[in-house]
Amino acid sequence: MKGGKGMITRRRFNMGLAGALLVGGLGIPKGFANEKSEWDTLPTPPLLENESNEKGYVKYTLNVQQGMYEYFTGVKVPSLGYNGNILGPTLKAKKGDIVEIKVKNFLKEETTVHWHGMVVPGEMDGGPHQVVSPNGSEWTARFKVEQQAATLWYHPHGIGTTASQVYGGLGGLFIVEDENRLNLPNEYGVDDIPLVIQDKRFSQKGDLLYLTNMNDIMYGMLGNKVLVNGVIEPKKTIPRGKVRFRILNASNARSYNLKFNNKLPFVIIASDGGLLEKPIKVNDVLLSPGERVEIVADFSEFDEGSEILFGDRGYNFLTLKVGKKGKRYEIPTRLIDIDKISEKDVVRVREFVLSGLGHMVTINGKQFQMNRIDENTKIGTTEIWRVSVRMGMHGMMGGGRNSIIHNFHAHGVLFQVLKRNGRKPTGHEQGWKDTIALRNGDTVDLIMNFRKKGVFMYHCHILEHEDNGMMGQFLVS
Ligand SMILES: [Cu+2]
């Protein structure tokens, strides 16, 4: 992937930093002028070639490596990437495939690769127990894909190094496909467009900054620029027609309320774990770190050459230009059937209380310990996990009731949201999920059935919180 072609000007940065101060640590910085004139600066992460010719068998190699990358033209900064300088190739597999991925770690520190959203046995999960030693060591993950089509991702998950490694550039998409033949936009990079959204902080010179103030520790690292697929405020020509976006929030800590600038409605068709039962028409969608959503927007009513902006709270970080007429797609009113996990099968309700900030973050009053299993369960069991955020005195510092202060991700399982604050879930929370956003005071009831054995993590996906110990382990035996 090429670097961004943004030109740095003093004015632009001064405005940006001033704006960031005005709206506070949790707001999107305002006042960034988009000064790029070039089109199609949005790269599409390349599809990684399957090394196997055998049917039903997929083989990949991921080299975890250091590199240099130009976020701003002419300013090379150290970066991390899979098989390249930044981010990683998109992996694809079909439901039923046996997947074998060799991970080679060429970093000077340990790493792991976690398949976020893929339901696999604990020892293949790529969590903190599957460390890949530095300087060329290897680890091979081997698992069968047993879930429906979905947009998943992979990223590091080492102890205390997840946040810095993801921020440095490590992360990529993992697309699962299945036999479903709905007439949805499916031409990768053309009308089926991956958007990996991240924010990063840059100095006036264009250097990448990390953990430079106390708020970064308290709330997690928030940037002053938003990047899509590794490029700051990119632009992309899209077909005049229906376009699907597979959106991943791969930011360390920032949540986004994503919308088009012209109030263009769109439909959400998929959540973390795949298609929803029905497309849901909305004007915006909230995405906390680690969550994915697939949306379809219809640009057929726009004139060729129209520009549509996409972003959050007045900071539009993606510019789309309507191009030539695209293929015809019909979004059906019914997408798939989702089997509801029955509450009658629930054998246990477990409570998880998330609290604290900075170094004081806890789940149920505890911080992560590598040699401690926090919860034990049995394979095939159905449980409700009642997850809440109780900030106590910290609540007043947390940017108000409407900020996503923590979120919750469980490995090794997909869940359904039974209730959010006593009400039925709305939007993409009506589908299969593995990560869920939480505000202070929120309580969500998540119903799940354990299908894979092993030790798995549950944690806040604000990566600085995770690294500070906002994580626990459960054993499925
Ligand atoms: Cu958190």
From TrEMBL:
Nucleotidyltransferase listed as a keyword: no
Pfam family of the protein (one): Cu-oxidase
GO MF entries: copper ion binding; oxidoreductase activity
Gene3D superfamilies linked to this entry: Cupredoxins - blue copper proteins
Residue ranges of every copy of the Plastocyanin-like domain listed in the record: 64-180, 239-300, 360-477
UniProtKB keywords: Metal-binding, Oxidoreductase
Domain of life assignment: Bacteria
CDD domains: CuRO_1_CueO_FtsP, CuRO_2_CueO_FtsP, CuRO_3_CueO_FtsP
Family annotation (PANTHER family): BILIRUBIN OXIDASE (PTHR48267:SF1), CUPREDOXIN SUPERFAMILY PROTEIN (PTHR48267)
Designated name of the protein: Multicopper oxidase
Organism: Deferribacter desulfuricans (strain DSM 14783 / JCM 11476 / NBRC 101012 / SSM1)
Phylogenetic lineage: Bacteria, Pseudomonadati, Deferribacterota, Deferribacteres, Deferribacterales
